[in-house]
Structures are given as structure tokens and as C-alpha cells.
């Protein structure tokens, strides 16, 4: 089945440093969608960015992830992190079928 292995637990950053968080995924889908979420202390998780075969280097709020299909990886990076970037980060995986269904549900 589908699975994701990632850097786990709370991430405490040193201001100005480069942060890299690892995400390795496994799926039979040839065109998966990968996601990163951020969860600050006592807050709900928030969507950060989404990658796909058509958008392999998504960027958002100073973060960038790189989808490398041959490595099945979707690592997240941020240059010059700030104290406010200390949080729990989640990598998630979705196949194209479910993505398509969600899209259909949200159409008027």
C-alpha cells in the first residue's frame, strides 16, 4: 500500500540556518500528489504546499519542496529559517484518483 516516511517530531530551528526535512514515499501511482503541512504548538495543521509530476518544485511562504520520482522523495527546505518556523511538519500522499474525486465534489 501507500506509505510515507518523514522527519518526525517537533522541529526546533536555529535562526538563519537552512532547514531540510526529509520525506520518502511509496505508491503504485505513477503521478501522485505530495503535500507538506505545518502545525504550530496548540494550533491545527495548516496546508503548506503541494507537489505533483506537473509541479515538481512548489514554493510557498519561503519554503520549497522538490519531488524526485526516481528517489520517491519530496524533501522540504527553507533558507534562513526564523523562530516562528519551529513546528511539527507533516508530509502526506494522495493518489490521482482520490484527487480527481475531491475535485469533482467541489465543482458547482
Automatic annotation (TrEMBL):
The keyword Transcription does not apply. The keyword Transmembrane helix does not apply. GO terms for biological process: adaptive immune response. It comes from the Eukaryota. Residues 2-95 form the Ig-like domain. Keywords: Adaptive immunity, Immunity, Immunoglobulin domain, Receptor, Signal, T cell receptor. One of its GO terms (cellular component) is T cell receptor complex. This is Ig-like domain-containing protein.
Amino acid at each position: 500500500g501507500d506509505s510515507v516516511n518523514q522527519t518526525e517530531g517537533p522541529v526546533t530551528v536555529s535562526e538563519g540556518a537552512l532547514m531540510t526535512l526529509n520525506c520518502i514515499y511509496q505508491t503504485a501511482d505513477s503521478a501522485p500528489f505530495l503535500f507538506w503541512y505545518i502545525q504550530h504548538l496548540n494550533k491545527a495543521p495548516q496546508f503548506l504546499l503541494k507537489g505533483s509530476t506537473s509541479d515538481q518544485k512548489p514554493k510557498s511562504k519561503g519554503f520549497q519542496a522538490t519531488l524526485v520520482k526516481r528517489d520517491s522523495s519530496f524533501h522540504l527546505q527553507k533558507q534562513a529559517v526564523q523562530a516562528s518556523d519551529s513546528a511539527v511538519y507533516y508530509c502526506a500522499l494522495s493518489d490521482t484518483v482520490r484527487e480527481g474525486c475531491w475535485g469533482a465534489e467541489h465543482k458547482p
